[in-house]
Description:
The chain is an alpha/beta fold. Helices cover about 45% and strands about 15% of the residues. Helix 1 runs parallel beside helix 2, helix 4 runs antiparallel to helix 5 and helix 5 packs across helix 6 (about 150-160).
Amino acid sequence: GIKVVTIGGGSSYTPELIEGFIKRYHELPVRELWLVDIEEGREKLEVIGALAKRMVEEAGVPMEIKVTLDRREALMGADFVTTQLRVGLLDARIKDERIPLSHRVLGQETNGAGGFFKGLRTIPVILDIIRDIEELCPEAWLINFTNPAGMITEAVLRHTDFKRFIGLCNVPLGMHMGLSQLLDVDPERLRVDFAGLNHMVFGLNFYLDGRDIRGKAMDALQRPDAHISMANIMAEPWDPDFIRGLDVMPCPYLRYYWKHGDMLEKDLKNFENNGTRAEVVKELERELFELYRDPKLKTKPKQLEERGGAYYSDAACELISSIYNDRGDIQVVNTHNRGAVANLPYDCAVEVSSVITKEGPRPLTVGELPEEVIGIVRQIKTFERLTADAAVSGDRVKALTALNVNPLIPSDRVGRIILEEMLTSHREYLPNF
Ligand code: G6P
Ligand code: MN
């Protein structure tokens, strides 16, 4: 049987994952699922553990749920490790969003200054987990959903020799589902080739039952009802001619760059009303945990769909299943470029459609990203690399440089102010600084 270890097991998202494993038990027999968390998360972990046990019992699946605060004990002999932790919990995310906004700068979980600080806090923790895996279960695959997934994958490539790391995000799946709805076709019939970076990915090629439908897909994306987004991002439609000009499908997060003024304005309003996304999520989580505590609840509640993580368990379980079953299907993951995207560095982390086998992901060769988008992608790649290096070294000059090359930071003067304020505010989670 398979042993899976989920670090950050007390997350409100965990019931998704449990549901995903239950649905696939016939092809992916997970015999032991270990949910690991830290002392601060003990209470949540217990609630999630009890719910998970009710869910597997209700489904009649012989999956054993183990709950522990001892990460090293859990990792012993694991086949798959998934990471979904949040360093500093939601209170740190609230700061990531509120501090930049207090300087009238975009405050977002994975982009700009907020994403940068999330990277600084999280990268050392993931590298620490990798050291434990190398010692205790070196054959295990590490599937990381922890954000910022792109920066973390970059850091793992640059600063470890660990090869069994895969970064995962639900955005490509959300785009795939959104486009299939727009085209009114079964998602299984549609194939989209994706490439780019995490939260900066593009749909490049489109096929229906194997036939090229690029023209049809691009036309549909210019329709007034084409506002594909995620629950956490304002679904403002794009200018249809802009989409025509790009000639690729942009991911919803590109709105933070290409609708920057509009997104900032809206977020500033929410900030003034104490309603940044992090604060909305905190309230949602409180409500979710109230439901989770109910001993009568034995399945994933509907309310979980209000979170941005829709389809995340499908992405995770499909990936694990394809590795386990050596399936050779195509899924979108964050991995080592190796020339797949010709106009990005050979060695960098990319989010790209990849063939998944028991050897892990092998990226599809997609050629060059078009001129229209490669500029911003390169700039963000530089930002990710500098952030990864700053997180590991604790070098303040590197940190300031990383932050200021990000196009969402309006000036080096403001960048400095935000850097100092956030370094102070997050210091307990930044031991390298
Ligand atoms: C999307 C992203 C995730 C992110 C989530 C935020 O799903 O792909 O990386 O964590 O949105 O959703 P939330 O409900 O926490 O704002
Ligand atoms: Mn994501």
